[in-house]
Specification:
By secondary structure, this protein is an alpha/beta fold. 34% of the residues lie in helices and 18% in strands. It is built from three helices and six strands. The strands form two sheets. It has a four-stranded parallel sheet, sandwiched between helices. Strands 3-4 form a two-stranded antiparallel ribbon. Strand 1, helix 1 and strand 2 form a beta-alpha-beta unit.
Length: 109
Amino acid sequence: MDFANKRIYLSGPMTGMHDWNRETFIEAARYLRNQGARVFNPAFTAPAAKEKAKSHSFYMLRDLHELTSYVDDAPFYDALAQLPGWEKSTGANVELLVAKACGIEVFTI
C-alpha cells in the first residue's frame, strides 16, 4: 500500500498493557509518517501513568467518534492499521467491525 497522504487510524491493544502499549503505537505511527501518511494515534490521548484512567467505555466512545469522522459524505480515514495483538483486544475488534462497515480499508502492520 502506498501510504503517501493517506489518513490512517491506529488500532491495537491498550487496556491492561504497560503504559497503554504506547511504545508500539509510537513506533507504528513513526513508520507510517515516514512513509508520508497522516496518523491518528490513540496512545497520545491515553492518560499518563500518574493520571487516573477513565472507563473503557469513555475511551471507546471517544475513539469510535474519531474513527467514524467523515468529510464530504465519505470516511475521513483512508485506512485502519491493526497493530500486533489486535485480535485479543475487545476495542480493536470493535474498531475493525466499524471500519469494515464504513468502507475503511484495513491492514495489519
